[in-house]
Design a protein that fits this description.
The complex is a heterodimer of chains A (326) and B (134).
Chain A: H1 15-47, H2 52-68, H3 73-146, H4 150-177, H5 180-184, H6 187-202, E1 206-210, H7 218-238, E2 244-251, E3 254-261, H8 268-273, H9 277-291, E4 295-300, E5 306-313
Parallel strand pairs in A: 1-2
Antiparallel strand pairs in A: 2-3, 3-5, 4-5
Helix pairs in contact in A: 1-2, 1-3, 2-3, 3-4, 3-9, 6-7, 7-9
Chain B: E1 6-10, H1 13-29, H2 34-55, E2 58-66, E3 71-79, H3 87-90, H4 104-111, E4 114-120, E5 124-132
Antiparallel strand pairs in B: 1-2, 2-3, 3-5, 4-5
Classes of the chains: A alpha+beta (326), B alpha+beta (134).
Chain lengths: 326, 134
């Protein structure tokens, strides 16, 4: 064993060496000075992105090496006590960061909730307010048509048919924006409704396979709906897919879902580095998923289609009750 | 039992250590757990660090505070440095020079129960934090 280094460590000394020498100092009666160093080490570890597991094992090795050399049982006890004090000090910056992350996740969840509220509001405006205006236009047209000669009346009828189409589309879009089915019947029926609409518009068959029924926690249903919606949009807009498959199943304590297409595919690495329009959608998906503790994976290769896999923990998300329509 | 007021002048890294040490002693005397004492020492370090890096010198005052049915520790960091132009920004994560999420003033706020800050450009900054004994 090397003898204890008592001089102040160089600022850019190897982290592991500095940890060992600072603990050695603390165990030798270094007091607050050494504890202060433990805290500085923790701060440095945080900035260098060291994992807690790395620190824990470094600490374990450090203490163990000194315990092996301990001359008495009393010294061993002292070392173990000093070890836990030193480690706590080193981890306190991580405690600060941990609390920061908790706050950040809370803010992210709140942001998602606000977003959902906003979407509801827009869906309502499109469906009800625009719908009412269309009814007024209908009435005005039929009133006008009464005074028109026959050929122009036929034209008005054609305009009214087009207006009916517009109304049908508005209704459809508003339901997809914030499907009342999602609130009333749950994720599976809502996805069937969504896929049906996308499939008809884009003329692509979409197969759905869901091996569970019944309701999921509210946050999961909303998140999963939004992700699949985004994935379908991407597949139709960018992938030139001929077929789409959606699968969802429960696995242990998680809900899994995959959206796959047989389109042109892409290189996921390239997507992550370039600030591309497509990439932004994926980042938003990723953020939605992490806000409720889930994971999202994308597998794709040029020419080989794309598969998006989502895994959302059911545990911890149960507390969120179902939203009621409003 | 009552703990008198302790003042530590902050001019260097060495003073940060002595402020931590005083804070830990007071925390122990007031009956805080060793885990809480560690968090208090950490908050003191962050405040003292700010003094050293932005104002160069200042002081940390540590004292007991009494509520109706509780008692706790107050840490006051004041300096006559350049002051903070935008306090809201200084309290937002990622704006301190430390860069890491959760360190600096926002971190101190999360470690303690109460947090007050006043600052005047060109005059200095005072931060007062309190932690109550559970």
């Amino acid at each position: 064993m090397k003898s204890a280094v008592r001089s102040k460590p160089k600022p850019h000394a190897n982290f592991e060496d500095e940890y060992r020498s600072s603990f050695d100092e603390y165990a030798g009666g270094g007091g607050e000075l050494a504890l202060g160093r433990a805290y500085e080490l923790g701060r440095r570890a945080l900035n260098e992105h060291k994992s807690l597991v790395e620190i824990a094992s470094l600490h374990h090795e450090t203490v163990l090496a000194m315990v092996r050399d301990a001359k008495s049982e009393k010294r061993t006890e002292e070392l173990i006590q000093a070890g836990s004090e030193f480690l706590a000090e080193c981890l306190s910056p991580y405690e600060m960061a941990h609390r920061g992350f908790q706050d950040a996740v809370k803010a992210l969840r709140q942001l998602n909730e606000t977003l959902e509220e906003e979407i509801k509001r827009i869906a309502y405006a499109v469906h009800d307010e625009a719908g009412q205006l269309l009814v007024a236009v209908h009435l005005a047209l039929s009133e006008m048509a009464l005074d028109l000669p026959q050929p122009q009346q036929g034209q008005v009828t054609r305009i009214r048919e087009l207006l009916n189409e517009v109304e049908k589309h508005l209704r459809r879009y508003s339901h997809e924006l914030r499907p009342t089915i999602l609130d009333d019947l749950g994720w599976v029926p809502a996805i069937r409704f969504l896929a049906d609409g996308v499939s008809k518009r884009a003329n692509i068959p979409i197969r759905i396979e869901a091996s569970f029924s019944g309701r999921l926690p509210g946050a999961i249903e909303t998140t999963l709906y939004r992700i699949v919606q985004e994935a379908l949009t991407n597949a139709v807009k960018h992938a030139e897919a001929k077929n789409l498959w959606i699968r969802a199943w429960k696995e242990n304590l998680a809900l899994c879902c995959s959206v796959r297409d047989d389109g042109v595919g892409f290189d996921p690495n390239q997507l992550q580095t370039s600030p591309h329009r497509k990439g932004l959608g994926l980042i938003a998906m990723q953020e939605r998923v992490s806000a409720i503790g889930g994971t999202l994976r994308i597998e794709s290769r040029p020419g080989n289609g794309t598969e998006l896999s989502i895994r959302l923990p059911l545990e911890g998300n149960h507390a969120n009750s179902h939203r009621t329509r409003g | 039992m009552s703990v008198g007021e302790i003042r530590v002048a902050i001019n260097s890294d060495q003073d940060i250590v002595s402020a931590r040490q005083k804070g830990r002693v007071v925390a122990n005397e007031l009956g805080f757990s060793s885990g809480d004492a560690t968090l208090i020492a950490t908050a003191i370090s962050e405040l003292a660090r700010n003094i050293v890096s932005y104002a160069r010198k200042g002081q940390i005052t540590i004292r007991q505070v009494n509520g109706l049915n509780r008692r706790g520790i107050a840490v006051i960091a004041d300096d006559e440095g350049p002051g903070i132009a935008d306090i809201r920004q200084a309290l937002r994560d990622g704006f301190s020079t430390s860069g890491s999420l959760g360190l600096g003033l926002p971190g101190v706020r999360r470690l303690m129960d109460e947090f007050e800050i006043t600052s005047q450009l060109g005059k200095g900054t005072t931060v007062m934090v309190k932690k109550w004994r559970p």
